[in-house]
C-alpha cells in the first residue's frame, strides 16, 4: 500500500496544504497518522478523492455540496446538472450587468465626473430576453437530460455498453430539443430539493417500478386499490388539491407528456424491461379510468372534477392518475408558498 | 436645507442600514449628528452620493475602487471602463467553466458515481477562442473608447453640445471598429495602473500639450532639446532600452498608428485646437527626424538603432520620437517583469 506525505499530495492534486487541511477538518478525507513520526499518511484513495474535490471546486461546486455528493454518490449527475444550471443563472446576471454598463458607457460624454452618475441611478441591470437567447445559443440548458435521468432512473441502472452510450446520446439530444423550456418549472422544483429528499424519492420510485414491472393478473387489484385510496385522499384534502391545481399546467401535464412521448421508445431500447413496465402501467391506468368514468367510482370522479376545478383530463391523459400516485410525491415536498414562488417567476 | 433620518435614506437608496453604516465607517459619507437627539442627519448630498455608491456597487465595483473614484473623480470614465473589462474577463472565465462542465455532462453515462469523476480530473476549464468571439459578438470590448479618452483627454475638456455628443459617438464607434484587438496590450497596461499614476500622467500630458499648442518659432529649439536629451538617455540606459524593445510592436506602434490615424480628424472637429497641436507636433517631429537622419545627430541615431535592435522606424513613423518623449512615461511605470507578463499572455 502506498502512503504519501502532504507535500507529494499537494504536487499531485494541485491543492495547497491549507486546502487539504481544510478538507480534513470537514471530514472529506481522513488520512491516518504515522505512529512513528506523527505525520499524516495519505492513501491512494485519499489522493483520488482530493483530485475529485479539486475538480468539483474548479466548477465552483460549494464545499457543502461536495460533502453531500460524497454522502449521496448516486446524486452525481443531479449535482453536476444543478451546478450547470447555477452557473448559467450567474452568467445570465453577469450578461445583464455587462450589457447595462456597456450601454451606460456608450451614452456617457468623454469628460465625466462621478457626481454626474446621479442621472444614471435606477438603471436596470436585469438580463434581457436577448441575453437569454444568446445564452441558450452558446450553451443550451441541460435540464432535459437531468430530468430524463431522474424519471427513468429505475431503468437506467443497467451495464454500460457502446450501444447504450449511443442511445443515451440520442435520448438526451432528443429530450433537449423537444423540451425547450416546457420542463423548466419541473427543473426548478427538482433543483430546489436536497439530496436526501431526492434519494428517498428515487428509492420509492424504484420500489414502485419494480412492483409495476412484476404485475400479475391478481396483483392489479392491489395497486388499483392503492390508487383509489390516494384519489379519495385527494378529494378530501385541500392541501393536496392546492398542490394539484398549482402544478397542473406547469409541472404535471408537461411531465406526463414527456414520459409518454417518443422518448419512451428509446428508453425501451435502452432497457427492454421498460416496455413491460409501460404496458402494465397503461393497463392499470385504463382500468382505473374505466372505474372512474363508467364504473363504481363515478361519484369520486365527479367530486374530483369539482375540487380540482376541472383540472383532470383523463381522456387526453389517462396516465394522470398513476402519475399522482407514484410520482407526484416529489412535487409536493416543498412548502406550498415556496413552490408557488418557484412557479411564478 | 433638508435633513433625513436613516430609515428614509434606506428607502430612497435601496441600501440597508448596515450598508450605510459601513459606508460611513469607510469615510465615503460623513453625515452630521443631530445635537439634540444624537441621530444621524443625512443631507441631500449624502443621499446623492449613496445612490451613486449603490449604482457602482450594482456593477460590482469594489468598495476600494468606489473610494478611489471619489478621490479622483476625473477618473470616472477610466474606472467604469476598467470595470467593464473586469466583468468581461469574469464572463469569459465563466463561459469556459460552463462549456467545460456542459461537455463533461454530455459525455457522462446516466448512472454515474462521484468516484467515476476521477477519469475527468485534469479537464481544462479555460475559455476557448470560440468563447472569446462569442463574447466579442455579444458585448464588444470598449477599450478603444477608454484609450481615446485617455490619449485625447487634453482636448476633450470642452463644453458639451449636441454636435459634440454626436461626434463623440462617431469617434468611439470608429475607434472600436478600427482597433479590434490591436490595442489590447495598451489597455492591459493602462488597467494595471492605479489612479494616482494615471492622474499624474494626465496632468503632465495636459501640460505638454499646452506647451506644444503654444509653440512659437523660438520655442521649437527648447522642445527639440528636451527630445534630444531623452534620446541620449535612451541610448545610455539599458532599462529604458528594455522597455522600448519590449513595448515596440505591441504597444508603441499600435498607439502611434492610432494617434495618427483617421480619428485625428474627428478630434480636430471636436476641438479645433487639436489641429494646431497636430501641425506643431508634426513640425517638431520632422525637425528632430532631420537632425537624426541627416544632421548633427546622425551618430546618436546610429547608436539608437544598435541598442534598440533596429526597432526605430523613423521613415514610417516619424512620430515615434515625440511619442517616446511625451507619452511613453506611462508605459514605463510598471516594473519590467510585470509588464513583460502582461504583454506575454
Automatic annotation (TrEMBL), chains A, B:
From the broadest rank down, the organism's phylogenetic lineage runs: Bacteria, Bacillati, Bacillota, Erysipelotrichia, Erysipelotrichales
Q: By its UniProt entry, which PANTHER family does this protein fall under?
A: HEAVY METAL-DEPENDENT TRANSCRIPTIONAL REGULATOR HI_0293-RELATED, REDOX-CYCLING DRUG-SENSING TRANSCRIPTIONAL ACTIVATOR SOXR
What UniProt keywords are attached to this protein's entry?
A: DNA-binding, Transcription, Transcription regulation
Q: What would be one Pfam family of this protein?
A: MerR_1
Keyword presence, Secreted: no
Q: Which Gene3D superfamilies match?
A: 1.10.1660.10
Q: Which Gene Ontology molecular function entries are recorded, alphabetically? A: DNA binding; DNA-binding transcription factor activity
Keyword DNA-binding, does the record have it?
yes
This one is known as Transcriptional regulator, MerR family
Record's SUPFAM superfamilies?
A: Putative DNA-binding domain (SSF46955)
Amino acid at each position: 500500500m502506498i502512503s504519501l506525505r502532504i507535500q507529494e499530495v499537494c504536487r499531485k492534486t494541485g491543492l495547497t496544504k491549507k486546502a487539504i487541511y481544510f478538507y480534513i477538518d470537514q471530514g472529506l478525507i481522513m488520512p491516518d497518522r504515522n505512529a512513528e513520526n506523527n505525520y499524516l499518511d495519505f492513501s491512494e484513495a485519499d489522493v483520488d478523492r482530493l483530485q475529485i474535490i479539486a475538480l468539483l471546486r474548479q466548477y465552483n461546486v460549494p464545499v457543502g455540496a461536495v460533502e453531500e455528493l460524497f454522502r449521496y454518490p448516486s446524486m452525481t449527475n443531479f449535482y453536476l446538472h444543478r451546478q450547470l444550471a447555477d452557473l448559467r443563472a450567474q452568467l445570465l446576471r453577469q450578461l445583464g450587468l455587462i450589457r447595462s454598463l456597456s450601454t451606460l458607457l456608450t451614452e456617457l460624454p468623454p469628460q465625466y465626473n462621478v457626481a454626474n452618475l446621479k442621472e444614471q441611478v435606477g438603471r436596470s441591470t436585469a438580463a434581457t430576453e436577448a441575453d437569454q437567447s444568446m445564452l441558450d445559443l452558446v450553451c443550451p440548458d441541460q435540464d432535459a437530460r437531468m430530468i430524463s435521468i431522474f424519471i427513468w432512473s429505475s431503468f437506467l441502472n443497467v451495464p454500460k455498453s457502446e450501444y447504450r452510450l449511443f442511445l443515451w446520446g440520442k435520448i438526451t439530444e432528443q429530450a433537449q430539443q423537444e423540451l425547450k423550456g416546457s420542463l423548466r418549472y419541473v427543473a426548478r422544483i427538482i433543483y430546489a430539493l436536497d439530496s436526501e429528499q431526492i434519494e428517498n424519492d428515487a428509492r420509492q420510485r424504484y420500489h414502485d417500478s419494480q412492483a409495476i414491472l412484476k404485475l400479475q393478473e391478481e396483483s392489479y387489484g392491489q395497486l388499483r386499490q392503492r390508487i383509489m385510496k390516494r384519489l379519495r385522499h385527494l378529494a378530501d384534502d385541500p392541501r393536496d388539491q392546492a398542490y394539484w391545481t398549482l402544478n397542473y399546467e406547469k409541472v404535471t401535464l408537461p411531465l406526463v407528456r414527456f414520459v409518454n412521448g417518443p422518448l419512451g421508445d428509446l428508453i425501451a431500447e435502452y432497457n427492454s424491461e421498460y416496455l413491460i413496465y409501460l404496458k402494465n402501467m397503461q393497463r392499470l391506468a385504463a382500468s382505473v379510468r374505466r372505474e372512474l368514468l363508467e364504473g363504481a367510482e363515478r361519484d369520486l370522479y365527479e367530486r374530483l372534477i369539482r375540487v380540482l376545478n376541472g383540472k383532470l383530463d383523463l381522456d387526453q391523459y389517462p396516465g394522470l392518475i398513476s402519475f399522482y400516485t407514484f410520482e407526484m410525491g416529489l412535487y409536493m415536498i416543498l412548502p406550498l408558498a415556496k413552490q408557488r414562488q418557484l412557479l411564478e417567476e
